[in-house]
Amino acid sequence: MSSQPVAPIIKSNSFISQSNPSVYLLSTNIVNALCHLSNTLGQPPVAPPVKVHVLDVFDRTDLHQLHRFLFQCRLYFHSRPTLFKSDFDKINFAMNYVSGMVQDWLQVALEQEDQDIHYIWLYSWSSFVKEMHTYFGIPDITAEAAYSLDHLHMNPDDQIAIYNVAFLQYSAQLQWTESALCHRYYSGLPDVMRSPKRKESPAHLKT
Questions:
Q1: Within 13 A of 4's CA, how many CA atoms are on the CB side?
Q2: Alpha-carbon distance 56 to 54, whole Å?
Q3: Are 89 and 83 in contact (CB under 8 A)?
Q4: How far apart, in whole angstroms, are the C-alpha atoms of residue 164 and residue 167?
Q5: pTM for the whole thing?
Q6: Cα 41 to Cα 3, 5, 157, distances in angstroms
Q7: Which of 73, 117, 165, 203 is the most exposed place for a label (fewest CB within 10 A)?
Q8: Could you tell me if 185 and 204 are in contact, meaning their C-beta atoms sit under 8 angstroms apart?
């Protein structure tokens, strides 16, 4: 095991300290600063702490709210991996950011545990997510995504990046073929951006 460098002990020089105290103090500060620098050289830099956005409370007032809530949970888990080593930790964290009917639903499940009635989704994150979608998600998410994709259009003054993100968000929930997605993608573009000879799929649609 390599030993850590130790700062040398600076002994007082009575002649210098008595004849010129300011010079002695300056030299001592310089030596101590150099010793501190030598001790820190070679050590890996310490990453600054990640500032995590506080989760929005999920109360199911919006049908699309659940998707955003679960995404925020995942972001928080990734930024604090040492705090969420088990599914139980993740579920307990998420349950502290719900209110209204969602909180009432969880309260019933927790009270039933006192009656020896246990639910696997209180201990499995994937089961918890599935259960949340069943009770508080969009009833038919595939039909909702298909409808949104069919009505997605880019205005001439819009940024294409915004159109691409929305297109990917909806198409990821569908099992459409690449040719069908390609046709729908170009159909949603403004007339000035369409090309009758352009038949290849956009790069971000290829698997």
A1: 7
A2: 7
A3: yes
A4: 5
A5: 0.60
A6: 14, 10, 53
A7: 203
A8: no
User: Hey, where are the domains in the chain?
Assistant: 65-136, 141-205
Burial zone of 93 (CB within 10 Å; 0-12 exposed, 13-18 middle, 19+ buried): middle
Six token digits for residue 69: 């809530």
86-119 residue pLDDT tens? 999 999 999 999 999 999 999 999 999 999 999 9
Contact between 163 and 188 under an 8 Å Cβ cutoff? The reply is yes
The confidence band for 70, taking pLDDT boundaries of 50, 70 and 90, is very high
Strand partners, 98: 58
Crossing angle, helix 65-79 and helix 87-95, to 10 degrees?
130
Q: What is the pLDDT of residue 53?
A: 72
What are the tokens at 29?
């500060």
Collapsed DSSP state (helix, strand, coil) of residue 31 = helix
Please state, in angstroms and rounded to a whole number, the distance separating the CA atoms of residues 108 and 101: 11
